[in-house]
Amino acid sequence: MPLSKRDLLPIRAETDIVMVRQAVRKACIEQGFSLVEQTKFVTAASEIARNTLEYGGGGEAALETHIEGVRKGVRIVFTDQGPGIADLEQAMRDGFTTGGGMGHGLGGAKRLVEHFEITSTPGVGTTVAIARWK
Amino acid sequence: MERIPILQMGQFLIVTIQVDMHDRLALTLQDDLTSRISATNAKGVLIDISALEIVDSFIGRMLANISGMARILDAQTVVTGMQPAVAITLVELGLSLPGIKTALNVERGMQLLRAALGDRQADPEQDDVDAPVEA
Predict the structure, then answer these.
(1) For chain A, what are the domain ranges?
(2) Which residues of chain B have a CB within 8 Å of the CB of A17?
(3) What is the third-level CATH fold of A3-133?
(4) B63-114 pLDDT, tens per residue?
């Protein structure tokens, strides 16, 4: 899919989560997403950005906008070099958390987006990619 | 330090969240509100989120915490003005905010708080004064 723009956003502090939300919102608006589509995608990005910070010890988000014919999309790839997730199935389950959250982060974020991919290697890090097409 | 202002109106505390909150700001609000409830003996808390463009699980948890802590401190909480897109997203995310009272706007939220208070004590002395001037 042709990439039209790619921005790297650091996730090193809580305020960076807000910056990610705002950058993602802007990209969604540029791609012509409806308000509900924007809200779902930004919320999913916020959940995953917080995971990157809290569990991954920080990392970055690559925010990409794509144009493929008449289709427009936004994709974000979150990467961290944290401890990784040993049991992905368990981590995706609602209500599961090893932190202080409600355990809706990953599973909830997956429900809010069209495409969700997660890969994680214990000791190496975690990568989560989400995408939505208009 | 950055803070979200808390206004007092009679027995109620009113907060309108106008900024995209980072996590610590949300936690500060939670702490500030519980201290103020206890210091002012407030019986109701109204949190207007009509300017919030997203509520993720962290902010949802903060709202649930405030509501729970307020209840223990003998105060009712109502969250007002949630945007429809935010409500749709919250439910899909898996957060239906059980135990949190909501109202469509500030006016209805105040009515809800007054009604809750009126049920407990039939003493509307302050209520009559400001009721007609609500936006």
Answers:
(1) 3-133
(2) 22-23
(3) Heat Shock Protein 90 (3.30.565)
(4) 999 999 999 999 999 999 999 999 999 999 988 888 899 999 999 999 999 9
